[in-house]
Amino acid sequence: MKNNLVIMSIVIAGVVCGACQKKEDSALKDNPFMQEWNTPYGVPPFDKIKTEHYLPAFEEGMRQQNEIINNIVNNTEEPTFGNTIIPLEYSDELLNKVSSVFFNLLECCNSDEMEKLADTLMPLYTKHGDDIMLNEKLFHRVKTVYNNKDKENLNPEQLRLLEETYKGFVRGGANVPADKQARFREINTKLATLTQKFGNNVLKATNSYQLVVADKAKLEGLTEQQLHNAAELANEKAETKGKYAFTLDMPTLEPFLMNCKDRDLRKEIWTAYSTRCLGGEFNNEKIINEIVNLRLEKANILGYDNYANYVLDDCMAKNADNVYALLKQVWTPALAKAKEEAAQYQKMLAKDHAGATLEPYDWRYYSEKLRKEKYDLNDEDIRPYFSIDTARKGLFMVCKNLYGLTFKENKDIPVYQEDVKVYEVLDNNEVIAIVYMDFFPRASKRSGAWMTNFREQYYTREGENMIPIVSLVFNFTKPSGDKPSMLNIDEVETLFHEFGHALHSILSRCHYRSLSGTNVPRDYVEMPSQFMEHFAFEPEVLKMYANHYKTGENIPESLVKKMEAASTYGQGFINTELLAASLLDMDYHTIKNKTSIKLPDFEEQHMDAIGLIPSIISRYRSTYFQHVFAGGYGAGYYSYTWSAVLDNDAYEAFKEHGVFDQATATAFRTNILERGNTEDAMKLYIAFRGQGPSIEPLLKNRGLK
Fold it and tell me: Residue 286 above 50 pLDDT?
């Protein structure tokens, strides 16, 4: 504004600034984020929120938080929990309100406009966070309260909040020497920008590719439904009309690799998938180099020898040595089993292609083929009993039997996308949460599945319980014609997995937002989600919900027995690719010296070192490993295995007493799901289980023992 005006006098300047102020005030007044949301349960009014509303709301949210912090810092009274920690905890009400909407929609309703806005916002948002963490006077007050904690009559949750707040400042750089603070800020800003760019590149690379096939005969092995879906997709564009189109989205890619007999076509689509962002327009190689080196430098400034030890110091694992030790315990039997599987598939391949060597694009095809032969079981036998509506019904029934919850769809609640469904979650006829469920792929949505919140559960300073507003996002195959979306085994497990995260938020009973729900250590957060997966295919549970989408017939006992017999089939591959990704993540983040990483050389070197066989690759190759380089799991992908030790051991308690035993379910709810981060994670687990976890149930349930 000022750069475009020639100020002739103080009087004119005053008039101009006054006019600008009125205009700004009016704009803020009309901004939905500045208004009370008179929507059901205070959900975001998505129909009223426009892209231009975000930046002013972010700026006002930061201004309001800064004002509160200034009041804390300038308070002349001796620092106490009540005049320092509590106002700080509640200082970001508006900022949290706008950021939770913006960052959630950025992931599932992206656009060029939203990307440009993110590029503008990330440096501002990061700087604001650094300004708080590096505020010397504020930290002095927090530290004073922390040092005097024994003098305050704090309950356990208040004490936990104090300890986590103090730790957050230390990990956020409060003790960084003055001469290094500028560089520390610069690193944080660069990392925020680079991780955003990494994710955008993966989304664009995924959307930019289609395998288009004109000759239907080349698609032998694909089901009629797959062919129908591919034809529908091709008909969306004039240049591919009348042909068959396949994308890199997993609901399309996986079935294609499992069923397509044409090896050249499998190779073509697999190569496109596995080389995304390695060179070309959306190259992520340079970004990975920068991220790894910046993370190392940040860790060094904070006093750690590598980034992994910085991250793990705030997790259950505590250090990199403990992570490697756990992963090795599972890696050895998993790799042995994977080699057995590979030998079987190699024999099958040799019959079809004499002299050929088993490649990654062959694995799913021959795995599915052998499963059909060995267990008389294939993907298409299973799907009809697991339509999206049926699977959701089963999920809700499990929640009712475990925790007494019921779910009611509410079509009057605003949604951000027309096919999103919204449910009220009721406990004893009281609405305790709202859940959004977003099932199907679209170009503006990143791949994968995840749970997040538009609002986390907490109590206001006035004592009102703010119920959580949960968002669940998936990428399941869309309904086609008169056929509903039908899920395979992995997708049903994904549905139950993400809802396990949701329950961690839905059932939260915490006073403070920063401690509630899923705000727990990274290697603990996956435990409730993976725990829920166990219920999906329990025979007792299948009888409750697995009905054929056409006939309504319950899944036959013979098919259930086949599924049970095949339950550990392919676990060599499943565990090996997962563990390879976990080890790759750790190898990046245990680097102790600035390095120049060349891909794919770095990846191949580290996969060779652990003995990964060539016919399997890491679940995510480096250039599209979004969990690690864009999703907050840097030095944390191991947490799926760490949490698996906990969830398998926890499920043993249910198997011992009955899958719907109320005493066991209540103990899990009250000690795990309701408590968030109000207590040390291992203490919470032991309070539920009565003892520490054993790795034996994990190895047994995965067929690795």
Answer: yes
Which of the following is catalytic: 164, 498, 538, 674? 498
Please confirm, yes or no, whether 498 is among the known catalytic residues.
yes
Amino acid at site 164? E
The answer to whether the predicted template modeling score (pTM) of the entire model surpasses 0.85 is yes
Q: Which contacts of 701-704 are long-range, i.e. CB under 8 A and separated by 24 or more positions?
A: 701/568, 701/648, 701/651, 702/334, 702/568, 702/571, 702/574, 702/575, 703/337, 703/567, 703/568, 703/571, 704/330, 704/333, 704/334, 704/337, 704/571, 704/575
pLDDT value of position 116:
95
Q: Which residues of 270-308 are buried (b: 16+ CB within 10 A; e: fewer)?
A: bebbbebbbeeebebbebbbbbbbbbbbbbbbbebebbb
Taken in order of first residue, the domains within the chain and their CATH numbers are 53-163 (1.20.1050), 209-274 (no CATH), 285-377+572-637 (1.10.1370.10), 384-565+671-678+695-701 (1.10.1370.40)
Query: Counting beta carbons within 10 angstroms of the beta carbon of residue 656, is it exposed (0 to 12), middle (13 to 18) or buried (19 or more)?
Result: exposed
- Residue type at 643 in one-letter notation: S
Say which residue, 23 or 332, is predicted with more confidence: 332
Residue 456's pLDDT band (boundaries 50, 70, 90)?
very high
For residue 217, the tally of other CB atoms under 10 A from its CB is: 7
